[in-house]
Design a protein that fits this description.
It contains 9 helices and 7 strands; from the N terminus they run βαβαββαβββαααααα. The chain is of the alpha/beta class.
Length: 220
């Protein structure tokens, strides 16, 4: 393995996508989901990108790529079908020390994008280090069935419990055994079964009175 695994915070950071076709549109969609400020450079763009620009969610420069497009950018994604242009983007990004990903060309990337499974705040990334993106997608489809929405609900509950404990001035180091008890006593399975009574019984046994599932999850 030569890649350093990392989860990158791009919220409110300037990100550039070169290419306005279907691949570029998918890249823009993901960047927006992560809170990035996105600029697209392409002579032509999809209807979806035009709509996003009209809504003020992205900026579009309807022209060919220029080296100066990298100015003030944190990250750039090349999504064109022009190999020479992709190589140029890569070279410019290296010279400017920008994070750069060229779609389907790992040799022109200084980071690669894994296949991702998400359930709420749970994110599972699958990477083949650029060897076989198709196999990474295959694994994602298989694992998607194993990690249902209960995992997102579980993390939401654990986060709410943690905030309540911190507000009560519990020492953070004392939290670990409490969370381990909740996990070890099948809290996840209770959430999957939507067994509110069982969840509340377990919360009281481990945490004491005052921890009510419906209140912690703001369920009405």
């Amino acid at each position: 393995m030569r890649y350093y695994p990392v989860c990158l915070d791009i919220k409110d950071r300037n990100c550039l996508v070169v290419g306005g076709g279907q691949v570029g549109t998918r890249k823009v969609r993901t960047l927006l989901q992560c809170g990035a400020r996105v600029t697209v450079v392409s002579p032509e763009v999809t209807a979806e990108l035009s709509h996003l620009a009209q809504q003020g969610k992205i900026q579009i420069r309807l022209r060919d790529y220029l080296t100066t497009d990298l100015d003030a950018m944190f990250l750039v994604i090349g999504a064109t079908d022009d190999q020479n242009q992709n190589r140029c983007i890569h070279q410019d990004a290296e010279a400017a020390q920008r994070l750069c990903n060229i779609a389907d060309q790992p040799e022109l990337c200084n980071f690669v994008l894994p296949a991702v499974i998400t359930q709420g705040d749970l994110m599972i990334a699958i990477s083949t280090s650029g060897r076989s993106p198709a196999f990474a997608k295959y694994l994602r489809r298989r694992l998607q069935h194993q990690f249902g929405p209960e995992y997102g609900q579980f993390l939401e509950l654990m986060g709410a419990v943690r905030r309540r404990l911190l507000a009560a001035e519990h020492a953070p180091e004392a939290h670990k055994p409490l969370f381990e008890k909740l996990i070890g006593n099948n809290l996840l399975e209770l959430i999957k079964a939507d067994d509110h009574s069982g969840i509340n019984t377990l919360l009281e046994e481990v945490l004491g009175p005052g921890y009510v599932y419906e209140e912690l999850m703001e369920i009405h």
